[in-house]
Structures are given as structure tokens and as C-alpha cells.
Design a protein that fits this description.
Also exhibits azoreductase activity. Catalyzes the reductive cleavage of the azo bond in aromatic azo compounds to the corresponding amines. Pfam families: Flavodoxin_2 (PF02525). InterPro entries: Flavodoxin_fold (IPR003680), Flavoprotein-like_sf (IPR029039), FMN-dep_NADH:Q_OxRdtase_AzoR1 (IPR050104), NADH:quinone_OxRdtase_FMN_depd (IPR023048). Its EC number is 1.6.5.-, 1.7.1.17. The chain is an alpha/beta fold. Helices cover about 40% and strands about 10% of the residues. It contains 6 helices and 5 strands. The protein has a 5-stranded parallel β-sheet with strand order 2-1-3-4-5, sandwiched between helices. The two termini are about 10 Å apart. The relative contact order is 0.17.
Length: about 220
């Protein structure tokens, strides 16, 4: 029985959020293809994690037998997140672009779940796990566009998830999501609609392919 770890981080609800809409398509397809599977859903906007502090950080580099009660409680959060990642057969992460980068709630999850010597380091415990990142954005930061140099979502997440944690990272990029509500972008609505439709198609196809791969 396969397990999907789904992480949403948009501050907007599903009916408004482009990233939530696409992760919902991924989940729906996954569950249709694998109804006996398990989905672990973390909504980082509805239930944000604490940002990493000195207590939680120091606990990862000290003997558990010496932990103070505060360190024990803080490190328990990190261990729980690591366990969720380790038991997942696939991961889908919603990473909308806020101010050119990822939401602070998603950064908090990363800072908490990255434990050197466990989920990161020479032998990451979830190495090879397929991760699909839904990197939505209001404009376009694709190669050749004026804002190409301001793309700090895909570049960062490829480095931290792939390079740092050894995960198998793939991206789905719904772009121009502000076109329907920004009059200045009205002429870009057809491109937005094409991008939106492709994102949903890609999410469904990716979910089906992962289920088939896990079942093989």
C-alpha cells in the first residue's frame, strides 16, 4: 500500500489558489488509481510549523540522552516530519511564488525536516523518492523572459530537495495566474489558460505514472 505525502502552502483556498487546484488534481488521480493507498496531507497555511530555532537546531547535533525537555519537544516535531517523508512513496509539494521565492511556511517545513545525518548528508534516508513540485506564479519567469533572473523557486528547490536531500525532483509550472484578474495582463489570458490546463494534465499524468511505477 503506497503512501503519498501532500504538502500545500498557499495562503489562498483551493478555489482561488492555482497550486492547491493542481495538487488536488494530483491527489484525486492518485486516489482513483490507488484507492487502497494512504495520503498524508500537511496544510502549512492552516497548520503552520514553528520556524527552526536554536533549541530545535541544537537538538539535532547533541546526544538525545542529554536533551532538555524543550529540546525533546522541539526535536520530536522534526522527527515526526522526517518520518512522514521517509514513509512516503511519492511526494507532491505546492510551492507558489511569493515575492520571488517560496512561502515562509514551506521554508519552515524544509528547515525542520532537513536533519543532517538523516534526511540530508551522505546517505539521505528518503533518497530517490519522487517529488513533484507545483511551482505556480503570477507572471512568467521562464528562460528568455524579462524576469528569468528572478526565478528563485525552482532553482532553490532543485538544489535543496535534489542536491541536499537526494530526492528525485520534477516540476509542474502553472504560470501567468494573475492574468485573469490583472487588466494589464488581459492579453495573456489565453497563455494562462493553456498553462493552467497543461498543469492539470501533467499532474494527472504524473500521478498515474507514479502509481503504475510503484505497482510494478
Amino acid at each position: 500500500m503506497a503512501t503519498l505525502l501532500l504538502i500545500d502552502s498557499s495562503v489562498s483556498p483551493e478555489g482561488v489558489s492555482a497550486s492547491r487546484s493542481v495538487t488536488a488534481t494530483f491527489r484525486k488521480t492518485w486516489e482513483e488509481q490507488h484507492p487502497e493507498g494512504t495520503v498524508i496531507h500537511r496544510d502549512l497555511a492552516a497548520d503552520p510549523l514553528p520556524h527552526l530555532d536554536g533549541v530545535a537546531a541544537s537538538a539535532a547535533f547533541s546526544d538525545p540522552a542529554s536533551h532538555t525537555p524543550e529540546q525533546q519537544a522541539a526535536f520530536a516535531v522534526r522527527v515526526k516530519l522526517a518520518e512522514e517523508l521517509e514513509q512516503a512513496d511519492a511526494v507532491v509539494i505546492a510551492a507558489p511564488m511569493y515575492n520571488f521565492t517560496i512561502p515562509s511556511t514551506l521554508k519552515a517545513w524544509l528547515d525542520q525536516v532537513i536533519i543532517m545525518g538523516r534526511t540530508a548528508g551522505e546517505a539521505p534516508s528518503a533518497k530517490g523518492t519522487p517529488v513533484t513540485v507545483v511551482a505556480s506564479r503570477g507572471g512568467s519567469y521562464a528562460p528568455g523572459t524579462p524576469r528569468e533572473g528572478m526565478e528563485y523557486v525552482q532553482n532553490y528547490l532543485e538544489a535543496v530537495l535534489g542536491g541536499g536531500m537526494g530526492l528525485d525532483v520534477d516540476f509542474i509550472v502553472p504560470e501567468l495566474t494573475m492574468a485573469p484578474v490583472n487588466p494589464a495582463m488581459a492579453d495573456l489570458v489565453p497563455l494562462y489558460e493553456t498553462s493552467r490546463d497543461k498543469a492539470h494534465e501533467d499532474a494527472a499524468a504524473k500521478a498515474k505514472a507514479l502509481v503504475a511505477r510503484l505497482a510494478a
